[in-house]
Amino acid sequence: MSFVTGLKCRECGRTYPKQPLAGCEDCFAPLEVEYDYEAISRVLSHKAIASRPKSLWRYRELLPLDADPVVGLSSGATPLVRASRLGRALGLKDLYIKNDSVNSPTLSFKDRVTAVAVNKALEFKLDAVSCASTGNLANSVAANAAAAGLPAYIFIPDDLEQNKITATSVYGARVIAVKGNYDEVNRLCTELSERHPWGFVNVNLRPFYGEGSKTFGYEIAEHLGWRAPAAVVVPMAGGSLITKIHKGLKELEQLGLLKDEVRTKLFGAQAAGCNPIASAVKRGSPDIQPVKPSTIAKSLAIGNPADGYHAARLITGSGGWAEDVTDEEILAGISLLAQTEGIFTETAGGVTVAVTRKLVQQERIKADDLTVIAITGNGLKTSEALKIEQPISIEPKVSSFERAISGLAAKA
Amino acid sequence: MSLKLTIPTALRRITGDADLVEVHPGTVQEIIAELDRSYTGFLSRVCEDDGKLRRFINIYVNGEDIRFLDNLSTRVPDEAEISIILAIAGG
B71 — contact with chain A (CB < 8 Å)? Predict the structure, then answer.
């Protein structure tokens, strides 16, 4: 049932048969999965997609599995929420939230990529799965590995939020806290991937893994009646998601499944304390200068982003832009989304909301642009970043409540 | 006086499958030149024609990315660890 013809180097074009492989052996650039789009166009239609269960597997011809998936069956198909109240606050008339903070099974967009990667590890008959992670990926690999009956070795920076550690260990994964930042954890995993016969989802399985993110773009287009939005605002860590949303939309266009051409402007969002891709876009050169991250948005704290070059090039080419925001703006972004739309996102989502505000102020996104904000993770995972007021405390008496509430009203 | 340099799998075709090679202290650039003398073609695998490091390769001296140090002019002292690692993982 696979339509995958092989792997192809993004830079030099060298092709490889399907296999666990991190990058091109000639020029070391990332690899892309290649498909037989002609064959796909003969079987994939709006009607076929509509007839299938609501999960990311409704686009299965465009995902790189050779067999039927056995884990991650409920991933994807997250809500696209019309965000009128947030739109009014930001000055946007046609705003939507793609809400992956309620993705299954682990409440982040990483459930899309691990759904592909862990099934791929089973297909390749690898002994275990592993990853370097800032938290969301750790949760998702651990959960899907447990469901697949595979051991998981999860490498994290040792300063990660407690909830992200708990939500990894609970699945029985072996969690290794590395004394260092994400980039150091990632370097270690790259070295270990040459010594252990495991599926490192974001090293040797990365070409397949990244394809799961395309479904974020397919779902947006399907929800919008098979149209691409005018603008997307996407948080950037390694930079892969924004490139895969673009790839997903272009594939739908190529297959004749969109009503219009893709003219989507790509907008990237980073924290000011870790902004190597946004800096490159602003500098006008896709060459990445790495940084040492310092931000509360730990899930975006990648100073040396693997897809930074590709992301910066695509953003610029689309007529989009990239911006970065301070920790204070990030916290304000979390509150704004929660208090206008009832959606509690993690720090990365605060980055995306705050960057959207900045881009509207800069008139890079216009009031009438149909805009989709990518909310990629759940607020409960990073609740320790928030400074929340303690609840009012009262006696179990009517008079006590009335006294307290009149005090609150006076304050407001 | 020598130090050890870790070679990634993708470059081991050139080093005759060696994953660890001995080189003399010097700048990163001098070490690459020394490796090119021992293993023909090494320079052109890791550097562009203009001499810059290829985009998808990172070099680390004692665990630090040389882009945070002096790039190819970074001095690698005796007994330092130097690694060449592909830059396409993670995220």
Answer: no
CB contact under 8 A, A28 and B56: yes
Radius of gyration of the CA atoms of chain A, in A:
21
* B82 in any annotated domain: yes
Q: Give residue A139's identity as a one-letter amino acid code.
A: N
The CATH number that applies at residue B23 is 3.10.20.30
Q: Note whether residue B12 is domain-resident.
A: yes
Determine which of A110, A137, A187, A213 to mutate to test the interface with B (most B C-beta atoms within 10 Å): A187
Chain-chain contact of B91 with A23 (C-beta, under 8 angstroms): no
pLDDT tops 70 at residue B1:
no
Which domains occur in chain A, in start order?
A: 80-106+211-385 (3.40.50.1100)
pTM: 0.96
Structural domain including B22 reads: 3-86
Sign of CA dihedral A14, A234, A135, A127: negative
The mean per-residue pLDDT over the stretch A315-341 comes to 98
Q: Which residue of A has its CA nearest to B66?
A: A290
In this complex, is the C-beta atom of A19 within 8 Å of any C-beta atom belonging to chain B? no
Confidence of residue A389 (pLDDT cuts 50, 70, 90): confident
CA distance A299 to B56: 23
Residue B30 domain flag: yes
Domain count of chain B? 1
B8 chain-A contacts, CB cut-off 8 A:
190, 194
User: What pLDDT digit, counting tens, does each position of A8-54 carry?
Assistant: 999 999 999 999 999 998 889 999 999 999 999 999 999 999 999 99
Instruction: Tell me whether B55 touches chain A (CB under 8 Å).
Output: yes
Residue range A161-175, pLDDT digits in tens: 899 999 999 999 999
Q: pLDDT band at A411, cuts 50/70/90?
A: low
B76 pairs with which residues across the strands? B26
Q: Which residues of A touch B60 (CB under 8 A)?
A: 187
Size of interface A-B (CB pairs under 8 A): 85
Structure tokens at A244: 């895969």
